[in-house]
Every structure is written in structure tokens, then in C-alpha cells.
């Protein structure tokens, strides 16, 4: 079953086009990472899913329901952790959760939820005195109310220290195991890598890539980097460098003493090693660096994004 479906959605704010013909499908039971730099259109997409705003053109459906006509049912089945903290300073943490339980007609135990997000001891304190991380945990507790079918987390790790971010990931996994679909928006790659089944990278209002993390890596063979350790510097080091450079599939070569770093396509690796050994040196060791996700993300979101598509 499809959890979220946007079909050819465009959203304009005056002359500003926030989303430009976006097609997006998230399957039920997925943890989907929605990635993009600031201003790419992530919050706009989430606001459309929840009918806080309406598309200029196109259609949005959640669990087959029309986002505009069946908004209440969608919101009832969804838990939302909005971007930024939205607490009421004068209400206690427990009151926030009680309020969420009441508005959803759910029967959760507020203390259990507060315990689960790690702020049970602050249940009776006013949220105005909470740290940013505690407020974020409180918002997560309210998102979990009523065992939602869909969890929408907009930049969920803002304000969380690494431990708290890890605890949040654990809760997200538990929710997913229970059957919830998770839509996780972020501009921080590490968080998405650690938890998501699939990621979509949004740029200027449309998807520039969508795949598993491994799939995205595989789509960039030119980013493979071979690090070669030689037993000594070849006598004709300039000639050796030139020979490696001219191997088909090699895009870049640099040398630092007995270490050679070669950026090449996967298929060129053994030809590179052979070319080096023809210069009378022995390859002591070699390793392949996979392109870091950070590089991958930057390639998709900066400069000419089309340049990295195969
Ligand atoms: N109410 C609005 N009026 C005018 N322009 C808007 C409005 N809301 C968003 N935009 C514009 O739409 C584009 C997409 O914004 P959006 O907030 O959806 O991006 P985002 O990916 O969520 O960014 P961030 O990571 O900074 O939250 C931006 O260029 C933004 O300036």
C-alpha cells in the first residue's frame, strides 16, 4: 500500500516556486529520508501532506485519502514532529501530552510516553523551563500519541546531543517495527544514513535522486578512489604518473611519497595496478575509499546536479 503520494505537485508563493512538478511515492512501512538543503521545499511538502497549505497544481494523497478533502482522517492517523519547538511555556510536559491524547481521542498513558522519550522526571515542570533538547523530546512524545500509522519528523534531531539523537533513532525504529511509516526530513546526511530504507534528495522543488544509500553510491562510479601503497618511489615517477593517468577510466591521479591516490571507475582498478607495476615497483597494499555520503550529497545539491546523474 502507498502511504504518501504526490503527483505532479507544484507550489508557488507569488513568484517563488517552492515545488516544481514533484512526484513522490512513499510505501507503507518504509522509513523514508527526505533530504535537501535549506529552501529545497521539504517543509512545503510536509505542509501539503497535512493540508496546512494547498498545492497550486497537482494532487496529494495519504493512505489513498485526498489531503484536501479528508484532512481530519489523515491528521488523526499521523504523528507530527514539526520543525522548531512549539511548546506552551506555561503548561507542564504532562499537560502537553494529555492535550494531544484528548485531541486525538486516544487512550495512551501520558507518563509512559514521557518515560519513553526520557523526560518522565520533568513531567510536572512547565515546558517554558525545558532545554531545547527536552522540548524536542516532549514534541516527540506528543507525536507518538495514538500509535500513528504515519510519523512525520521535520528535522527531528535539531537541538539533540548525539546520545539523544541515537535514542530518537531507536524510538523511530520501534515505531517502524510496530508498523508505522516514517517520513523523516533532514539536511543532515548522517541521520538519514543511519536509519532510512530509502532517501529522496530534493533540490529546487524537485527530486534530483531517489534510491537506497547504497544505490546512490553505486550511481557514482567515478567517485571510487583507489589508494595505493608502493614499496618505493619509481625511478621514473613522472612517467609512472602519466601511465596511470592514461589508463582508460582514470580521472585523477596524485602522489605523495610512496602513496598514490587514483580516482577512477571500478573497472579500471586492476589496469591501474598493472600500469604501476610496469614501472618496476611493488604494490605493498591498496584500498578503495567509497565516496563519502557527504560528497554524494554535495554533488547532488550543489553546482550542476545533472552532472552526477548517470
Ligand atoms: N510562506 C512563504 N512565502 C513565500 N515563500 C515561501 C514561503 N514558504 C516557503 N517559501 C519558499 O519556498 C522555498 C521552499 O521552502 P521550504 O521551507 O519548503 O524549504 P525547506 O527545504 O523546508 O528548507 P529548510 O531546510 O530551510 O526548512 C524557499 O525558497 C522558501 O523561501
UniProtKB/TrEMBL annotation:
SMART domains: AAA
Protein name: ABC transporter ATP-binding protein
UniProt cross-references to SUPFAM superfamilies, sorted A to Z: P-loop containing nucleoside triphosphate hydrolases (SSF52540)
Family: Belongs to the ABC transporter superfamily.
Domain ABC transporter: 4-229
Keyword Protease: no
InterPro entries recorded: AAA+_ATPase, ABC_transporter-like_ATP-bd, ABC_transporter-like_CS, DrrA1/2-like_C, P-loop_NTPase
